[in-house]
From TrEMBL:
Residues 43-294 form the G-protein coupled receptors family 1 profile domain. This is Olfactory receptor. It comes from the Eukaryota. Putative odorant or sperm cell receptor. InterPro entries: GPCR_Rhodpsn, GPCR_Rhodpsn_7TM, Olfact_rcpt, OR51/52/56-like.
Length: 314
C-alpha cells in the first residue's frame, strides 16, 4: 500500500482515456478522427512537397508556409498513435517517459506553430510596408535563422516545464482524462507540491503563445495603418488580400486554444465527453484547415498543388 501512495515517476504507468461514457462507440468515433488525420497528413505533405519542388514558390512567404506545414505534421503525428490506439485497440497504457516525450512534442509543435504565425505576420508587414526591400530583408539565410530560433525558443522554454515533472511522486489514480498526455492532467495526479511546476508551466506559455498572441494583432495594426496610407483602393484591396490566408490560420489556431482554456476553467458543468472531444479536436483543427485555407485562398499554392496532382495522373 505504501508503494501505491508514493510511486516514483520512473515506474509510473498512466492510463489514457478515450471519450468517457461513449466507450462502446469508440470504433465509430474513430472514423471521423481517421478522416481528420488523413486530411491533415496528406494536405500538409502535399503543400510541403509543392513548396520544395516548385521553383516559383521559393519565396519568403512560402518558406514560412512550409514551416507551418512541418509543425502541423509534427502536431498530428504526436497524438495519432495514442488516440487511434485507444479507439481501435483500447490500448490505454503509456509509460511515464513515453508520456513526457509525447507531452514535450505536443507543446513544442504548439509553441512552434504560434512562433511561425508570428513570423508570417512579420513577413506580411515587411511585404506591405517596404515591398522594394522585401527580398533584401528576408533573405534565405535570415529565414533559416528565424526557423532555427523558433525551434530553440520552444525547446528552451518547454524543457524545464516537462523535466520538473520527474521530481514529482504520483500517489493518486493514474488515469489521465485525455487520449494524449496533457501537462495539467499529469500534475493533478501528483501528491507532491506542484506550485513550482504551475509557475514554470504558466511562465513558459505566457512567454511564448501569450506574447505571440499580443504581437500578432499589433503587427496587423501596423499593417492596416500602412494599407490605409495606400492611395489606390484597388492596391489597398490587393495588399489586404495577401493577408487573408494568414488571418484565417491565426484564427483557427487561437480560437480553439482559447475555447479549450475556457471549457477547462468554466465548463465544469459540462459532461466529461465534451471536454475530451474539444481537447482532441483542438489539436487537429489547425493541421486540417491550414492546407485547405492556403490552397483555396492562395492562387500560387492552388496552382502548384493542381500541377502536382495532374502530373501524378499522367
Amino acid at each position: 500500500m505504501s508503494n501505491l501512495q508514493n510511486t516514483t515517476s520512473s515506474s509510473v504507468i498512466f492510463l489514457l482515456t478515450g471519450v468517457p461514457g461513449l466507450e462502446a462507440f469508440h470504433t465509430w468515433i474513430s472514423i471521423p478522427f481517421c478522416f481528420l488525420y488523413a486530411t491533415a497528413l496528406s494536405g500538409n505533405s502535399l503543400v510541403l512537397f509543392a513548396i520544395v519542388t516548385q521553383p516559383s514558390l521559393h519565396e519568403p512567404m512560402y518558406y514560412f508556409l512550409s514551416m507551418l506545414s512541418t509543425t502541423d505534421l509534427g502536431l498530428s503525428v504526436s497524438t495519432l498513435v495514442t488516440m487511434l490506439g485507444i479507439f481501435w485497440f483500447n490500448a490505454r497504457e503509456i509509460s511515464f517517459n513515453a508520456c513526457l516525450s509525447q507531452m514535450f512534442f505536443i507543446k513544442l509543435f504548439t509553441v512552434m506553430e504560434s512562433s511561425v504565425l508570428l513570423a508570417m505576420a512579420f513577413d506580411r508587414f515587411v511585404a506591405i510596408s517596404d515591398p522594394l526591400r522585401y527580398a533584401i530583408i528576408l533573405t534565405d539565410s535570415r529565414i533559416t535563422q528565424i526557423g532555427v530560433a523558433i525551434v530553440i525558443r520552444g525547446t528552451l522554454t518547454l524543457t524545464p516545464m516537462v523535466a520538473l515533472l520527474t521530481r514529482l511522486s504520483y500517489c493518486r489514480s493514474h488515469v489521465l482524462h485525455h487520449s494524449y498526455c496533457f501537462h495539467p492532467d499529469v500534475m493533478k495526479l501528483s501528491c507532491t507540491d506542484t506550485r513550482i511546476n504551475n509557475v514554470v508551466g504558466l511562465t513558459a506559455m505566457i512567454s511564448t503563445v501569450g506574447v505571440d498572441s499580443v504581437l500578432i494583432p499589433f503587427s496587423y495594426i501596423l499593417i492596416i495603418k500602412t494599407i490605409l496610407r495606400i492611395a489606390s483602393p484597388e492596391e489597398r484591396k490587393k495588399a489586404f488580400s495577401t493577408c487573408i490566408s494568414h488571418i484565417g490560420a491565426v484564427a483557427i489556431f487561437y480560437i480553439p486554444l482559447i475555447s479549450l482554456s475556457f471549457v477547462h476553467r468554466f465548463g465544469k458543468w459540462a459532461p466529461p465527453y465534451v471536454h475530451t472531444m474539444i481537447a482532441n479536436t483542438y489539436l487537429l483543427i489547425p493541421p486540417v484547415m491550414n492546407p485547405i485555407i492556403y490552397s483555396v485562398k492562395t492562387k500560387q499554392i492552388r496552382r502548384a498543388v493542381i500541377k502536382i496532382l495532374h502530373s501524378k495522373d499522367t
